[in-house]
Amino acid sequence: MQTLTPHVYWAQRHGEIYLRVEITDAQNLTIGVEENILHFKGQGHGAKLQKKVKPEVKHKSTQRQVNITVKKQEHVWWDRLTKQEKKPLFLAPDFDRWLDESDAEMELREKEEKINKVSIESRVRKDPFLGLKKGFLFMYNLVQFLGYSWIFVNMTVRLFILGQDSFYDTFHTIADVMYFCQMLAIMEVINPAVGLVKTGVTPAFIQVMGRNFILFVIFGTLEDMQNKPVVFFVFYLWSMIEIFRYPFYMLACIDTEWKLLTWLRYTIWIPLYPLGVLAEAVAVIQSIPIFNETKLLSIPLPKAIGMSISFSYILQLYLVIMFLGLFINFRHLFKQRSRRFRTKKRKAN
User: Fold this and answer.
1) Which end of the chain is more exposed for a tag (fewer CB within 10 A), N or C?
2) Do the Cβ atoms of 276 and 234 come closer than 8 Å?
């Protein structure tokens, strides 16, 4: 019988040793037939392994090679395969499966994360109405995006054509669509309140109610305010923020992300949101003399006193609340931004 020394290739993980024995040169072997059964018998002897392994051995044979998997007694990284420092001539690394220790640890962590994710998903009860909810949110964000896009484009075109003259009739041109969008925006308070989206109710309430106060009370009840340039700046800043926010949420409903849009959604509000609040504050300040003069929305006191509380006092209090709301929302949005980009960075690594 011819004695052959096949090539052996090896690789490892923390808990296993992988061996690949090449047998392509094994041609002149003794083959016999006994009781109409073809018998093939082989025997090998190799070098002693560096550390202890479990007796159970898994193997799979093909016409060209034998793949062997041996489990280690301890989950440790071996410096070499054999106990002897000098590597046998027939032994070489299996570069198809070779990993460094750090790469093997990363592979192990990824497997554990995948197992944990599958385990969590199997325990979490699937929502039978998830598709319906996503469809509703997609349509809501699409309608809002179209509405604010119309406002933004309309105002931009009028600005280029009419110049500063477009400042003075903004309300009469845009107000109907803005009324619609801002009334619909009340859903952004209802959605988190009923658990449809996982965001805070308070920040959404502050923004939506604040905008509606400016739109319906300051601009809507005072005709003298409707022709002022501040209306243009308030509406323009609102629409500039929303034409990036709503498509971001719209794509999130279908598990799609555009990196540029994500960056714009979490970045462009940093200059625009304070400017919007500043424009709203200017509108409130400009409306105070008008409310004082017209006594509109003033609170009457008993006839014995013969006085009324001017609505302007409420507006002055509202200015304080407005900048407090700016602080609360700014802090909330910055946390959202930091969390978002921290998560993306961790996934990238």
Assistant:
1) C
2) yes
